[in-house]
Amino acid sequence: MRIESKLENKLNLTPKQKKIGKKTGLYLVLILGSFVVMYPFFFMIMNSFKEGTRILHAPNALPKQLSLQGYIGVFKSLNIPRLFFNSTFIACSVTFLNVLCSAMVAYGIIKTDVPGKKILFRSALGSMMLPPVLLLVPKYMMMYNWGWINTYRVMIFPVMLSGYNIFLVMQFMRQLDDAYLEAARIDGANEWQVFWKVALPMVKPGLATVTILTFMGSWNDFIRPLLYIRNESLMTLQLALYRFQTSIPGKNIEQLWAATTLISIPVVIVFFFLQKNFVKAFTGVGLK
Prior knowledge:
Elements: H1 2-11, H2 15-48, H3 52-57, H4 69-77, H5 80-111, H6 117-129, H7 136-146, H8 153-156, H9 163-173, H10 178-186, H11 191-202, H12 204-219, H13 223-228, H14 237-245, H15 253-283
């Protein structure tokens, strides 16, 4: 701070010039950060519209002419509609159940007198401390014994509850004023109505955050489909892409970039619609 003050005194800057200088520096940092974040997406989309030989010889160059051969080849090689359905159905089911169950557990722990809620809370925290890899073999044996291998159930129900999401929603539930809940009970609302019509709308930023994180995690999940899915009709996009990239020749690499671009679209759409509440959740203005 002293160095900045001495420099400003030497330059004889006016308050307006100081303000402009700080804003300019901030914008330059933001532009640089945006470039670092956005360039991989630009690189991916750019190469998806180039021919394979052009990608191999000049991957960073702009396409001389837009080519749709990558997208055409992907739709010919893979059953994209079926893969999109599988990934979307699994991701949406996991997201809906996870958000609902996490909110219910968080509400029960924070706003009710459920017996044993401290044990439930500690169990949720304890589950966050276990490395997921540690549970792969026990979970696989359980799913195999239950006959869930090669089914949608194995991709949805084992991850319908998350200790991290419970903990995250709990932080928003703590900010709820109990007066609103008591007023609803006095008006004749039962506990489910209080939870559904009063509590949930007031923690919308937290739910939006959990929705985005859960959807992204489920959509990008690769380990569980690789472990549990053998039937091609149940494969997700990520698993199909992994098998596809090992089978295509190098000259058709544009198909890999096209498939990667297609896979990224749903996550971008979900974030676009929920970004306002997502930002609120991390700026602390979700509740007023």
